[in-house]
Amino acid sequence: MALMLIILLVLLVYSLFFLRSAYSYWQKRGVYTFRPTPPFGNAIDLVLQKEAIGVNIQKFYQRCRKERIPFAGYYLLTKAIFVPIDVELIKRICTTDFDHFTDHIGHVDEKNDPLSTYLFNLKGDRWRTVRSLMSPSFSHGNVKRCCETVLKYAEQLKVLFGGMVGNLEGVNVKEACERYTTDVLISFTYGIEAGFLVDANSVFKKYVELVFGAGWKQSLRLMLNIIFPEMYSLLKLKVFDDDLARFFTDLVFQRGGGKIDDTRRDVLHNLTHAGSKNDLSMSEIVGQCFGLFLAGTETTSTVIAFTLFALASDEDAQEKARSEVVKALGKHQAITYEVLKGLDYTDNCISEAMRTFPLAPINTRICSKAYNVPNSSVTLEKGTNVFIPLQGVYMDPQYFPDPERYNPERFAEDNTENDTSVFSPFGLGKRQCIGKHIESFCTKVKTTFHRLPTRNTANQGGHCCAINQFQVYSPSGFSVAN
Ligand code: HEM
């Protein structure tokens, strides 16, 4: 009993010393910080899952703006994280001073967890090599070629919505969009047809749920991957289930048994050929293909759903977007790559949806080389984690007056009241999103196809959603999420 008490006492004293030392990190370096709450740091509501990471960091950003400080130190549990607040500093970190911040946070373990080798996670020279091998698949020509495929799946989605005519339970737009982006991404990456749009019970249903399901286990894994990536390698943990690894490995080896279209230059085809010349291992190829599915499916379907939702709530914007599409169709008869590129107002509607519902509410970097923070005496150590508070910037009235309001006019070329130069939904610099053109394309195609439920019909107790000639009534609302 006495021994037990001594052990407990030692543990308590050790914990107190540990917390004291951890929470003096920023103070010792002369970086402004707010009093942390042990053991949660500045992230109590985030850790207890009361608020999302974007909201938590947005609140931190707003406190810093009030104090007029250009950067601050944040504690996620006991992990010290640097948060640049000044937008010029953010731009420097991502662009001119990129050499000091080449990597994203996230563990890579090729042997034990092949899915972890996707581009987003790769570091230093390995990232540079793989990014250059991936880039040709995202060239202007390849994206343009992909247009036909996107249009084919968009037509299937139209049919799917058509089948929902008269559905009084409501239409889950997000789920339908997810089936659309899954089909597009699987075709673009593996050159096969997932068939998820035509078959709701396709095998992809299970794997989409496994990857993007918001269960506590997956949330915990993703959070630990940010806070203690070293732990994953040390304890041989995996961010994703074995079942997922098997499925995505099989897709590469057998192309899932689907139809192969060898006339298309899909990513897998490009990487397999590049791999033999550049020592890209099979695990890395599996990781890259999985990474595109991970990075592109959920993000794009959510942007589409949010854009449709925003337009459904703003009749004026919807009418303006539709007349732009109708005018373009009058001139060109069909939706093509060139027509889509010319839809400026539609673009503004999508950008404004991404600003008001940011898909990437924060971005991350690791300080890969000691960095003297400009106009200060602070030096960041190699290995320091950085959170870039994108949602905080987008909701800052200095850059976007009345920031809560959905207003596509902010992005009009002649609008000087808003500073859209601080808007970077796809990141900035050499590490910015490789798939942004594919995304913009899928989203635009979808946005052009619909007349949406409107506020007026919602007020009458039901949503009226006319998709071309069809009418869908959904009294329980326009569902953008599960
Ligand atoms: C609305 C949709 C999307 C959003 C908002 C988005 C956003 C982002 C952001 C913020 C980053 C980090 C950039 C940085 O660190 O500066 C990123 C990276 C990345 N994205 Fe996207 N993305 C989207 C769609 C896609 C699609 C469709 C693909 C693939 C087809 C894709 C593939 C990637 C990859 C591979 C990276 C890692 C790039 C690297 O580290 O070199 N994303 N994305």
From TrEMBL:
Membrane topology per record: Peripheral membrane protein
**Alphabetical list of InterPro entries matching this protein:** Cyt_P450 (IPR001128), Cyt_P450_CS (IPR017972), Cyt_P450_E_grp-I (IPR002401), Cyt_P450_sf (IPR036396), Insect_CytP450_Detox (IPR050476)
Can you list the GO cellular component terms from the UniProt entry? endoplasmic reticulum membrane
Keywords in alphabetical order, please.
Answer: Endoplasmic reticulum, Heme, Iron, Membrane, Metal-binding, Microsome, Monooxygenase, Oxidoreductase
Provide the transmembrane region boundaries. Answer: none
- Mind telling me which Pfam families this protein's record contains? p450
Entry keyword Glycosyltransferase: no
Reply yes or no: does the keyword Oxidoreductase apply: yes
Residues annotated as binding heme are 433
Q: Which GO terms describe its molecular function?
A: heme binding; iron ion binding; monooxygenase activity; oxidoreductase activity, acting on paired donors, with incorporation or reduction of molecular oxygen
Instruction: Provide the protein's localization.
Output: Endoplasmic reticulum membrane; Microsome membrane
Listed cofactors: heme
The entry's family comment says: Belongs to the cytochrome P450 family.
Report what the protein is called.
Cytochrome P450
Provenance organism: Photinus pyralis (Common eastern firefly)
